[in-house]
Design goal:
Blueprint lengths: L20 H8 L3 E5 L2 E4 L1 H20 L3 E2 L5 E3 L1 H6 L1 H4 L5 E4 L5 E4 L4 H11 L8 E10 L14 E11 L2 H21 L5 E4 L9 E8 L5 E6 L17 H12 L3 E3 L5 H4 L7 E16 L9 E3 L5 E3 L1 E8 H11 L1 E2 L2 E2 L10 E5 L5 H16 L4 E4 L5 H11 L3 E5 L1 H5 L3 E5 L5 E4 L1 H12 L4
Parallel strand pairs: 3-7, 19-20, 19-21
Antiparallel strand pairs: 1-2, 4-6, 5-6, 7-8, 8-16, 9-10, 10-13, 11-12, 11-13, 13-16, 14-15, 17-18, 21-22, 22-23
The structure holds adenosine-5'-triphosphate and magnesium ion (MG).
Catalytic activity: tRNA(Pro) + L-proline + ATP = L-prolyl-tRNA(Pro) + AMP + diphosphate
GO molecular function: ATP binding; proline-tRNA ligase activity
Enzyme class: ligase
Length: about 450
């Protein structure tokens, strides 16, 4: 993309409504625009990152054999009356009447709808196990929408639902989700720690939340510092293997890590004092096993091996896709702006032309731009007439992890400059070497 043809409405001033750094930087980098309290338009740069996060989530879900689909945002209230949650859910649910005076709602989650789909079409235990998921907008009329996309009213969530014949199978599905989540967050450059949590209005016994440590997090968390040393990395895993998924689950949840809702001071005291930590965290996902809570009242049964109908064991598993943008920025920024991890960056590399209009500099930039694109990379070329300082400030603000700077002086010696946004270190090299280095960095990521 050439910046002169893009829509990147960056702000020079700090917007006064933003209380935390991720919200401030998303507004300043022209990623979002508020349209009503807790409701945002995703401007091109923000939309690009949102799509990247969605893609990672899709890939990791499908790698584990989970099946993508799409359910509507607007739901009929009937199913919610059946489960008993239409009255139980409270004022967070946006209730709407259509022109026939029918009760409708903007879905805050989809357990009822997926259970209805399941009971209409699945009849035998032989069709299990099954995991269906979608990535769809949700609406929760939060009392205090704040912090930009972090606590929105309309927000994008991946929600997956598991159907199994037995509790044992359902717990395998639970562990399998834990593995997919660990992989997804790591690909986004994040460490998200599974912590024992409280089940809230969705209900159930087994549940973990995934928390990104950050001062601005809304949850209070307590953990054994050893847990922050764990990495999933690029290990191979067979998602059908009960033992392998169970082993990862145990590895990542055996140390003390809890949110304030389930915090147990006596247990925490058993952690060696030098490893006890209390901090703040951002919830970026949650997994639940809730058994037959919905399948029983809603009659979602399958014919078991003995021919008798049995209610299926279910779980639901969510990732806060839009909240993740805020969480990533909270975890990765400096006083100049955002620092995108390579896995989610909106553009792979920025090209800064120090002397737009200079034939040699323009030609070198055009050639760089073309060779990067030919390798399947997505550069942002600042081809505007802005002065160099302004160009650098914009690149730093929007946080592309790599920048190639091109100017007449370097070109005389046949070199350009490659700069890392994270370390600030620059290296001179030929344009070909810069392209090769960028390609190398993104091999296996882009
Ligand atoms: P919270 O405790 O933050 O209100 P929740 O536990 O009610 O969240 P879940 O039902 O577990 O939310 O939803 C799955 C994920 O969706 C959460 O882990 C979170 O990342 C995200 N999420 C929930 N509410 C919001 C919101 N208002 N804005 C943005 N993301 C949200
Ligand atoms: Mg939750």
């Amino acid at each position: 993309m050439r910046l002169s043809r893009y829509f990147l409405p960056v702000l020079k001033e700090n917007p006064s409504e933003a209380q935390i750094v991720s919200h401030r930087l998303m507004l300043r980098a022209g990623m979002i625009k508020q349209s009503a309290a807790g409701i945002y338009s995703w401007l091109p740069l923000g939309f690009k990152v949102l799509r990247k996060i969605e893609t990672i989530v899709h890939e990791e879900q499908q790698r584990a054999g989970h099946i993508p689909m799409l359910m509507p945002t607007l739901q009929s209230a009937d199913l919610w009356k059946e489960s008993g949650r239409f009255d139980a859910y409270g004022p967070e649910m946006l209730r709407i009447k259509d022109r026939q005076d029918r009760d409708m709602l903007y879905g805050p989650t989809n357990e009822e709808m997926i259970t209805d789909i399941f009971r209409s079409h699945v009849g035998s235990y032989k069709d299990l196990p099954m995991t269906l998921y979608h990535i769809q907008w949700k609406f929760r009329d939060e009392v205090r929408p704040r912090f930009g996309v972090m606590r929105g009213r309309e927000f994008l969530m991946k929600d997956g639902y598991t159907f199994d014949l037995t509790k044992e199978d359902a717990l395998h599905a639970y562990n399998r989700h834990l593995v997919t989540y660990l992989r997804s967050y790591e690909r986004m450059g994040l460490q998200a720690i599974p912590m024992r949590a409280d089940s809230g209005p969705i209900g159930g016994d087994d549940t973990h939340e995934f928390l990104v440590l950050a001062e601005t997090g809304e949850s209070e968390v307590f953990y054994d510092s050893q847990i922050t040393e764990l990495k999933f990395g690029d290990r191979e895993i067979d998602y059908d293997s009960v033992d392998q998924c169970q082993a990862v689950m145990e590895e990542f949840t055996s140390r003390y890590a809890r949110t304030d809702e389930t915090h147990d001071a006596a247990l925490f005291a058993e952690v060696p004092a030098e490893r006890q930590r209390s901090a703040r965290g951002i919830e970026v996902g949650q997994i639940f096993y809730f058994g037959t809570k919905y399948s029983e009242p809603m009659g979602a049964t399958v014919q078991g091996p003995d021919g008798k109908p049995v209610p299926v064991h279910m779980g639901s598993h969510g990732i806060g896709v839009s909240r993740l943008l805020g969480a990533i920025i909270e975890a990765s920024h400096d006083d100049k702006g955002i620092i995108w991890p390579e896995g989610v960056t909106p553009f792979h590399v920025g090209i800064v032309n120090l002397k737009q209009g200079d034939d040699q500099a323009d030609a070198a930039c055009d050639a760089l731009y073309a060779s990067l694109q030919a390798l399947g990379l997505d550069p942002l070329y600042d081809d505007t007439k802005e002065r160099a300082g302004g160009k650098f400030a914009t690149m730093d603000l929007i946080g592309l992890p790599w920048r190639i700077t091109v100017g007449p002086r370097g070109l005389k010696n046949g070199v350009v400059e490659l700069t890392s946004r994270r370390t600030g270190e620059s290296e001179e090299m030929t344009p070909e070497a810069a392209v090769e280095k960028i390609a190398e960095i993104y091999r296996g990521i882009a």
